[in-house]
Structures are given as C-alpha cells and as structure tokens.
Write a structure and sequence with these properties.
It is a single chain. The chain is α/β, with parallel strands linked by helices. The chain has one domain (2-91, 99-200): Rossmann fold, CATH 3.40.50.880. Helices cover 26% and strands 30% of the residues. It has six helices and twelve strands. It has a seven-stranded mixed beta sheet with strand order 2-1-3-4-12-11-10. A hairpin with a 2-residue loop joins β11 (168-175) and β12 (178-181). The longest helix has 12 residues, at 189-200. The N and C termini lie close together (12 Å). The model has no long low-confidence stretch (mean pLDDT 96).
C-alpha cells in the first residue's frame, strides 16, 4: 500500500508524511504523474494562499493529474488549503479558478467580537451526515484548525462534519472517492490519526 502526498511547494507536507508512516503505511512525496496514478491513496495537503497554490499546481502540471486520479477512483483527500483548492473559487483570490472537483466556494471567516482571524485552535465537530472518515469517532470530538477562509459547500449532503467559529463552517466533505478536511487530522492527536486511518482503510 502506497500513499502519494502531492508536493507542490506548499507547507505542512512533512507532518502529513510522518502521520501516514506512523500508521504503518509507505508514503511518497511526489509531483510525478506515474507515482500519483500508481498510488493506493492520494493526499493533497497544504497551507498558504489559494491563488499562489493554484499557480503552482498549474506550473507543475498537477491539475490534470489530480483530475485523472479522481476519475480513476483513487481515494483522494484534501487537507486545509488542499480542501479549498478542490472547490470552484475563493474570495482570497478573485478570478482564480480552483480545481472544481466539488461544488462550492471558499469565503472569508466574518469578523466578529472576540473572534481572532486566522482561526487557530481546537474546535469540536458535529456530524450532519454520516461520513466514512468519522466511523468510530464520537460527535463532539476536537480537531485542530488553522485558517482564515472556510468552505460553503454547494451540496449540503456531502458535508460530513461541521463546526462553529463565528459562523457555521463546513469542516469535512465526502463524495464518492473524494474527501476533504479543513482541519489538520495530522495535528489532531488520536482523533486525527483515526480519521487518517479510516481514509487509508477505504
């Protein structure tokens, strides 16, 4: 079993690799088409800016490879910025098209009293719809977030986890072989490792 972690010069890739190895799986950091399409699972991690990240995915020829991997039904997981890139657009980069793998848009967390942006810290999850990533995980479990923008999913049925931070945040989505988390499972202690294990078991 081999997990391809897409390397497009975005941050946070090494911590994802460590978590996968801790779970007993082989991980490869790669931007090579053949490696990605030969993998049993593919992860698109990342922290940073939406527009810059899309530029890098185009520069490295990864946009078509990602779409091909999804079409080939390889289980595919986006994490943090990786989640945001999977959607159609982001207020952070007007005019920049996302990957468009799922319907929805990325918007800025609204300013609020006593609300720090970026949102950094632990928040509890609720589960509006059953999701395969959350099997064996109790509702109300805490996971770790770092973000200033959040997902408004175009299809409420694909939202499998949500949290509140000044507004309702769609924290995880799932459709067919495509999964995404706004939070960082690789930094979310035992709960996060269980989420990653559930993904690897698909």
């Amino acid at each position: 079993m081999m997990v391809a972690i897409i390397d497009y010069d975005a941050g946070n890739i090494k911590s994802v690799e460590k978590a996968i190895v801790m779970l007993g799986r082989k991980a490869i950091l790669t931007r090579e088409r053949d490696d990605i399409l030969a993998a049993d699972h593919v992860i698109l991690p990342g922290v940073g800016a939406f527009g810059d990240a899309m530029d890098k995915l185009h520069r490295y020829g990864l946009v078509s490879v990602i779409r091909e991997a999804v079409e080939e039904k390889i289980p595919f997981l986006g994490i943090c910025l990786g989640l945001q890139l999977m959607f159609e657009s982001s207020e952070e980069a007007p005019g920049a098209a996302g990957l468009g793998l799922l319907p929805g848009r990325i918007v800025r967390i609204p300013d609020g009293e006593n609300l720090k942006i970026p949102h950094i810290g632990w928040n509890s999850l609720c589960f509006p719809n059953p999701g395969r990533l959350f099997q064996g995980i109790a509702e109300g479990s805490y996971v770790y977030f770092v973000h200033s923008y959040y997902l408004q999913a175009g299809d409420p049925q694909m939202v499998k986890a949500a949290t509140e931070y000044g507004t309702l945040i769609h924290a995880s989505v799932e459709r067919d072989n495509v999964f995404a988390c706004q939070f960082h499972p690789e930094k979310s202690s035992e709960t996060g490792l269980k989420i990653l294990q559930n993904f690897l078991d698909i």
